[in-house]
Design brief:
232 residues, alpha+beta, Glutamine Phosphoribosylpyrophosphate, subunit 1, domain 1, six-stranded antiparallel β-sheet, 8 helices, globular
């Protein structure tokens, strides 16, 4: 199941966009940690790959070594697909020999695309081409546009059901974490939720407690002013 794009933005933020004919794909597959990296586990998903992979990245292992370590203790490795990016933008990917066609991965400058049970290699190619082309867009939107391009190229050959978008920037918590768990057109719905988040949620999130400002902004008038400026 599933195809996804993970990337490191020029700001240092990590982002993942993912879609599948599988319920709640955003729950088990995408994992990221600010300042550390991102891991996506898919096909016959192994949820342990996410937290364990991020811990290994945090210990300084390169993505290829992280994947090698994860696979070394997994008897189901031939059924797994996983790709990883670290804080330096280095990338590695694994597609097990038992993953279902079409399956594979490709990497570009600061991003990786991987998928299985797809309509064909064009799904990944168009996802990657869109991400590359839309470099002037906001990071989250750039990921969404890439996912939409992959869907237009055929997407998951079984159909549509779920999609998710996750962005980690500077904090221990995600800056943006949006999921569509069951929908007739999940990527379109994900895009709608992203646009809705711009109205109040994203500007409000900039006022939360952070490493740079531990108490955040507590003056409600200033919060409202921030929201209004952000939406203009």
């Amino acid at each position: 199941m599933t195809w996804s794009i993970l990337a490191r933005d020029s700001s240092g933020a990590f982002g993942i966009a993912i879609s599948s004919r599988f319920f709640a794909v955003g729950m088990l597959c995408p994992h990221a940690r600010s300042g550390v990296g991102a891991v996506v586990t898919q096909a016959l998903v192994n949820p342990h790959y996410g937290p364990e992979g991020l811990d290994l990245l945090g210990d300084g292992l390169a993505p290829a070594s992280v994947i090698e370590r994860l696979l070394s203790k997994d008897q189901g490795k031939d059924h797994r697909q996983v790709h990883v990016i670290d804080a330096q933008g280095r990338i590695a990917a694994h597609t097990g020999s038992a993953c279902i066609d079409w399956c594979g991965s490709l990497a570009g400058e600061g991003f990786s695309v991987a998928g299985n049970m797809l309509a064909g290699p064009q799904v990944l190619e168009e996802t990657a081409a869109s991400y590359t082309k839309n470099s002037s867009e906001k990071f989250a939107l750039r990921l969404l546009l890439a996912l939409q391009a992959g869907e237009a190229a055929g997407g998951d050959k079984r159909g549509k059901q779920a999609a998710a978008l996750r962005i980690h920037s500077t904090e221990d918590y995600a800056f943006l974490d949006i999921r569509v768990d069951d929908h007739a057109d999940p990527i379109v719905e994900l895009r709608r939720l992203y646009e809705k988040s711009l109205e109040r949620f994203q500007p409000f999130a900039t006022c939360l407690p952070s490493r740079a400002r531990p108490a955040g902004i507590t003056d409600r008038a200033v919060i409202e002013e921030t929201v209004q400026k952000f939406s203009k």
